[in-house]
Amino acid sequence: MRILGIETSCDECSAAVVDNGRTILSNIIATQIEAHRPFYGVVPEIASRMHTEWIIPVVKEAIEQAGIEENTIDAVAVTSRPGLIGSLLVGMCFGKAFAFSKGIPFIGIDHIEAHLYAPHLEQDISYPYIGLLVSGGHSLITYVRDFDDYDVLGTTIDDACGEAFDKVAKFYDIGYPGGVAIDRLSKEGDDRAFNFPKPSLHKGDHQYDVSYSGLKTAAVNQLDLFWNGEAEKSRANIAASFQRAAIDIIANKAIKAARDKGVKKIVAGGGVSANSYLRRKMADQKDIQAIFPSLKLCTDNGAMIAGLSYHHLKKGRQSELNLNASARVPLFKKNYP
Predict the structure, then answer these.
(1) Non-local CB neighbours of 154 within 8 Å, separated by 6+ positions
(2) Which contacts of 259-263 are long-range, i.e. CB under 8 A and separated by 24 or more positions?
(3) Do 109 and 184 sit in the same domain of this protein?
(4) Which end of the chain is more exposed for a tag (fewer CB within 10 A), N or C?
(5) Termini Cα distance of the chain
(6) Half-sphere exposure (CA, 13 Å, Cβ side) for 258?
(7) Beta strands 129-134; 139-146: pairing state
(8) What are the distances in angstroms from CA 249 to CA 84, 234, 245, 299, 315?
(9) Angle at CA of residue 255, ends 253 and 258, nearest 5°
(10) Are β-strands 265-269 and 129-134 bridged in parallel, bridged antiparallel, or unpaired?
(11) How far apart are CA 5 and CA 63, in angstroms?
(12) Are residues 279 and 197 both part of a single domain?
């Protein structure tokens, strides 16, 4: 089954062609980073307008790079949730029109689920495992039994991990996107220069939850309280110390979840899964196998949308052409006992 996958949930305009849920024939990602850099964040109106300009040439390039004809595409999969509503609608409207014109199935895909599927595009991964989703808008720890069967064990009670990176980077003018800029600068710093606090969420229903508002406040407004008194108060040292604290918060919870649930694998996805410290920390766990997607598949991309949709389509699932986009997804709220 040859599927065209379209992803426009935020500021990447991406289209890909994937065979049978695994073989990536093309994966074009057009990023809007330069357009949003002056604002240190994504401006929704700019994002949706740029998607409108880019969607046709991006899809055309994906089909050409795949070396196929349009008429050989068997289905169209599009991100329908969650994300910026204007951006989502651009991809969805194009995908619906393409599918309708070709008389082929159309399906809307949740791009958070697709992030968790991304490593499956490159590796054979057996279930169950702990899924770790870390991005600018989401921080999730899940127990995954199958591609469509999982429990949300933990999530953030305030800010997402990637959001904290972006805001600290903006305050100290480290660069944009914040996660990439802090990761790069931290290589020059001492990650023990500041002993930033980690939230004490370790009991009952919150044992796998995370919080980033306190860490963000400490790094921005209370720097002197957590300085070790010896190291230079440089941006590199701030970046390194903040990164260590931010990653430790969610990585330690994922490791605890894996050990508590008796599973030996943690599968990561989302933009922050590209973080070098997170990858090193997970690699150091001798009793747990950590599986990451390649760097190109960490960001939003059409290949993960097409790949996941294959399994849904195999089960006979598809969407009606009146499917609407959704900015938020109740699915990723925790199911408390």
Answers:
(1) 140, 141, 206, 207, 208, 209, 210, 253, 257, 334
(2) 259/287, 259/288, 261/128, 261/130, 261/143, 263/128, 263/129, 263/130, 263/143
(3) no
(4) C
(5) 40
(6) 24
(7) antiparallel
(8) 27, 23, 6, 21, 37
(9) 110
(10) parallel
(11) 11
(12) yes
pTM for the predicted model, two decimal places: 0.94
Q: Are residues 150 and 283 in the same domain?
A: yes
Question: Number of C-alpha atoms within 13 angstroms, CB side, residue 14?
Answer: 29
**How far apart are the C-alpha atoms of 214 and 159, rounded to whole Å?**
10
Residue 100 belongs to domain spanning? 2-116+299-332
Same domain, 26 and 86: yes
* Amino acid at position 326, single letter: S
Number of domains in the chain: 2
Quickly tell me which residue has 């991406």 as its tokens: 14
CA angle, corner 207, sides to 206 and 213, nearest 5? 60
Count of Cβ atoms closer than 10 Å to residue 133 Cβ = 27
In angstroms and rounded to an integer, the radius of gyration of the C-alpha atoms of the chain is: 20
Q: Which strands, in side-by-side order, build the sheet including 289-291?
A: 149-155, 139-146, 129-134, 265-269, 289-291
pLDDT tens-digit map of 27-62 = 999 999 999 999 999 999 999 999 999 999 999 999
* Residues 288, 309 contacting (CB under 8 angstroms): no
Distance CA 304, CA 202 (A): 33
For 71-101, what is each residue's pLDDT tens digit?
999 999 999 999 999 999 999 999 999 999 9
Give the chain's length.
337
Separation between Cα atoms, residue 163 and residue 172, nearest integer Å: 15
